[in-house]
Amino acid sequence: MSVTPRISARAARFAGVAAAASALALGAAGTASACNISEFSATAECTGEQGVITVVDKDPSGVEATVSVYLQSGGSEKLIGEQNVKGTREGATLTFKENWKPNATYRVHVKAGNQVDEDIKSGLTTPGKACASPSPSESTPSTPAPSTSAPETSTPTPSAPESTTPAAPAPSNSASPAGGSDNLAETGASSNTPLFAGIAAALVVAGGAVVFALRKRGAAQR
Question: How many CB atoms within 10 Å of residue 120?
Fold first, then answer.
C-alpha cells in the first residue's frame, strides 16, 4: 500500500511537535538543575547586640559554592569573611559576624564551580540604625557598698625609749695620784727614804766621833 502525500505530511508534523516538546523538557530540566546567582540573597541583621550578615542559598541542585563578603568604603574593599555552602530547596544559611555601621555597603560574591562567578545583584546596604548597644547600667559591673562597721584597730603599748646616755662609771676605792704623778703622796713612803736614813746615821756617827776626839784631846792638855 502506498503512502499518500497527505498522510506523510501529517506524520512529519507530529514528529516535529514531539521533538520540540522533548527539547523544551530537556531545557527545563537543565535549568532546574543548574546553580544560578538569583538563588542567593544577603541581608544585614542583629542577633541581640551583635551585628551579622546572613547569606541564604536556595539552590535545589546542592552545588557547592564559596561566598565572600567585602566591605566597601572610600573606593577600597575589605574582606569580612569567606565560607562554603551547599544550597537546598528550603535554603542553606551562612552567618558572618560583623558589627556593621548604618547605611554601609557590602559586596557579596558567589563562586559555584563553572556555573556561577558573580556578585549578588544590587549588593547589600545595611539599615539606617545600628544594633542596640548595652546600657551603662548593664555594661558597668555593680560596685559593692563599703562596710559600715569600723575596722578593729589594735593600739600598740608604747615601750620605754632606750636611753642613749652612757652609764656613769663606778667609783674607784683607790686614790688617784695628785697631778697625774707616779710618786706617792707626801705622807706616804718614798723609794729614796732608805738612802736618806743611811746618810743621816753616818753623819750622827761621824759627829759623835768628832765630839769624843775633842773631849779626849782637851783632857790630855790639862
Answer: 19
Mapped onto helix, strand or coil, the DSSP state of residue 38 is helix
Query: CA-to-CA distance for 23 and 30, rounded, in angstroms?
Result: 10
Strands 116-119 and 124-125: unpaired
Position of cell 559576624?
Answer: 97
Q: What are phi and psi of 214, to 5 degrees?
A: -65, -40
Mean pLDDT, rounded, of the chain: 75
In sequence order, the 6+-apart residues with CB closer than 8 A to the CB of 187 are none
Q: pLDDT tens for residues 196-215?
A: 778 888 888 888 888 888 87
The cell 530537556 sits on which residue? 26
Which grid coordinates are listed for 27?
A: 531545557
Eight-class DSSP state of 165: S
Determine if the pTM surpasses 0.70.
Answer: no
Q: What are the Cα distances from residue 162, in Å, to 156, 158, 167, 170, 178? A: 17, 12, 13, 21, 38
Q: Which residues contact 55 (CB under 8 A, 6 or more apart)?
A: 40, 41, 42, 67, 69, 85, 93, 94, 96, 108, 120
Distance, first Cα to last Cα, the chain: 242
Whether the predicted pLDDT of 118 surpasses 90: yes
DSSP secondary structure, 62-78, as one string: --EEEEEEEEEETTEEE
> Helix (H, G, I), strand (E, B), or coil: what is residue 132?
coil
CB 141 within 8 A of CB 100: no
What are phi and psi for residue 42, nearest 5 degrees? -135, 140
